[in-house]
Amino acid sequence: MEIRIGIANTGRELNFDTSESADAVKKSVAAALDAGATHVTFTDAKGSSYIVPTAALAFVEVGTEETRRVGFVA
């Protein structure tokens, strides 16, 4: 699933694919914001970690989990 994170005061976004479910990503972001944590950590499908300060989060867009199609589509 694709995750897109907007960071305040920057013109770029952080985009990556993760193997976590949409609910797990939403819960980790909500828990960090509710607890007043200074940062939230994301892990992509390749195992790389991204640490983002919660004060700098502009938005978090969670893509849908879609199955890949095989073959030709008419």
Automatic annotation (TrEMBL):
<dbReference type="InterPro" id="IPR021456">
    <property type="entry name" value="DUF3107"/>
</dbReference>
<dbReference type="Pfam" id="PF11305">
    <property type="entry name" value="DUF3107"/>
</dbReference>
<protein>
    <submittedName>
        <fullName>DUF3107 family protein</fullName>
    </submittedName>
</protein>
